[in-house]
Design goal:
The protein is mostly beta strands. Helix content is 14%, strand content 41%. The longest helix is centred in the N-terminal third of the chain and has 23 residues.
Amino acid sequence: MSRHLDVSRAFWPAIAIAGSLLLTAQPVFAGECPADKVKPNAQQMVDYKPVGVTDTTLGAIDLGKQPAHIEGRELRFRKLTIAPGGIVPWHSHDDRPALIFVQQGEIVEYASNCIDPIVHKAGDIRPEVFGTSHWWKNLGKETVILYVGDVRKDPRDHNM
């Protein structure tokens, strides 16, 4: 029994080092651009129209009427369904932060600040913030379902 304790004591420094590395590591989201592929203006704007996309608003809250008093902003929750071959056209998140959850399927993002396309799979969450402009395409054979929470300023902004 003491032999087991001696062996486990030998591993404590390694466990402590591994734990400290985990605590200092930056969070990584699944399906994000690798650090060595991030580059401003890596992808240029394209003028594709929406193809095979259904955008349904499931709910919205006027944030000016809430205790936070964020006048002129709306918290919106949507469901996007993208058929195989479908395209979500180029749009910017400079004034509309969002979180996207991939509920079903696999979709490719072409981001303005990433040299390579970014693949998003079911279960991934993609933060979209200032500096993010992009378009998405469903290259697979399965319909993709995305759930999107965003903070919209202009109610006439119908960007996906």
